[in-house]
Amino acid sequence: LCMLERVDAKDVLHFYDTEDSQWCRFKSTTLSTRDAASVQWSPDGRYIVVFDSLLYDSINILNSDGKTLHSLHLYGVNVGNKPASHFTLGIRSFNWAPSGHILAAGRYDNTCLLYNHANWKVLAELKHPLDIPIDPILGLDCCGEIIESRNFERGSVKPHKVAIYIERLIEEQPYYCRQLTATTRAEELKDAYVISRLPYTVKSTKIDPKKPNPKIGVGLCLFSPNGGYLATRVENAPHAIWIWSIGGLHISLVGLLCHSSAVTSVQWDPRLLPAEFTRLAFCTASGRVFIWSPEGCLSMTVEKPGSPFPVKTLSWGPSGDTLLLQSSKSFCLLHLKSAEGEAIFKPLEPTWTAPSRGRGPLEENNRDPQTPATHSTFPADAKSDLPKWALSAHRLARKTFRE
Length: 403
Hints:
Elements (H helix, E strand, L loop, with lengths): L1 E6 L2 E7 L8 E6 L5 E6 L5 E6 L5 E6 L4 E6 L4 E2 L2 E2 L7 E6 L5 E6 L3 E6 L5 E6 L5 E2 L14 H6 L8 E9 L17 E7 L4 E2 L16 E6 L5 E6 L2 E9 L6 E7 L4 E6 L11 E5 L4 E5 L2 E5 L2 E2 L2 E2 L4 E4 L5 E5 L4 E5 L55 H12 L1
Parallel strand pairs: 15-21
Antiparallel strand pairs: 1-2, 2-3, 4-5, 5-6, 6-7, 8-9, 10-11, 11-12, 12-13, 14-17, 15-16, 18-19, 19-20, 20-21, 22-23, 23-24, 24-25, 26-27, 28-29, 29-30
């Protein structure tokens, strides 16, 4: 167990032995952060990441023994004699890939950085263009930049098709009934997705600079359980969900889900499924529930006897066939059925599990125990979720480490 503490105006990370009956503290490490705000273990238990507060942009990467491996900065370019972090806000959000091989960090400038664990370099810088038309045929490049037709004709970039889903309200009635009028009740309407074939612009909301804690930047970055997809949301455009493909040959935006109201809750199906069966469930401020998969996207309005059920948050059941929907005063269970049956959802092989490392008995004077040297930083049997084009850098780093 690790815990942050502020001692003499310095950030200190303490380590506690959970197997000891008294939870003895066996090591303390002084960090280079200015005002550490949070600490988190990687899913495989090999790394510890410490983030600075939003006024600074530093990230400390430590191993499980408390040794600092790298000190990262979201804004690495200096401006004059001062670091770029002096002029910008720091970390907006972060999330580990399930295998612990990729770390996603969202910034306040609508950019999400992906770091790989081999050398802690930036794999990709995912930008979220707002108020600019996005062509669904050309899409965005691997860094989230708009692909223009003139660049495509020159052959300087390759197109990446993106499925742009736009929520629309349609009347739930036969074609021979009366047409939609201003007096049509809200209960007679249902929502549906329309796939855009024309360039679509994600509109941003105006931010009041006088108010504290502005809603800007990438406030959500969430990996799918198999590590193949990354869902992001920009706080000043909360009605749009951006879905990126991470596990293929190239990182690309594959889905852009736009709605009439802000997205309030997002959750991936917790099962470890093949990429084609991955599912993302989310709800909006309108109280509707949406489910996305690589095959398409659907929406539904949950109703209880007498009136609709305004969904505020949702979460998956462990089996992946149930959604817990919560409103401000009540909750309900939504059971999902598959026409093909559960046989199609075959679980993948489990990800690499970090081996247990025993420690010797703590010394009486509470000195830090000596950690034996080990070459297990890059295990050969690790199931990596790095993109295929990034695996060569991973192997090179592993070879250099062994030499």
